[in-house]
Amino acid sequence: QVSLVESGGGLVQAGGSLRLSCVASGRISSISAMGWYRQDVGKERELVARIFRGGATTYADSVKGRFTISRDNAKNTVYLQMNTLKPEDTAVYYCTLRLLLTTTDYWGQGIQVTVSS
Question: Are 105 and 3 spatial neighbours (Cβ–Cβ below 8 Å)?
């Protein structure tokens, strides 16, 4: 069993910054990728950013240049640095993890990020 615990969300004014953290624990062998999704009320869940085993990253077009995903392998932790936040970034943010040689994604419980205008 794998557990993911997010932290760092909250309320921030437009233009501000937040850093999300996600710590993975449990039966973790080798991690293929970790990432962040988000979902706002009435909208579909969307990929925000993902970081792969070798360090490659991918971002949603809407966050490129503003968000940065990083990872501390020793701590099984992934971060999402969010700068120049906009009201449309408001959503519940979910951490995900995929183990090597699997297609199953583990999900965190989600954390609220609210950006006021």
Answer: no
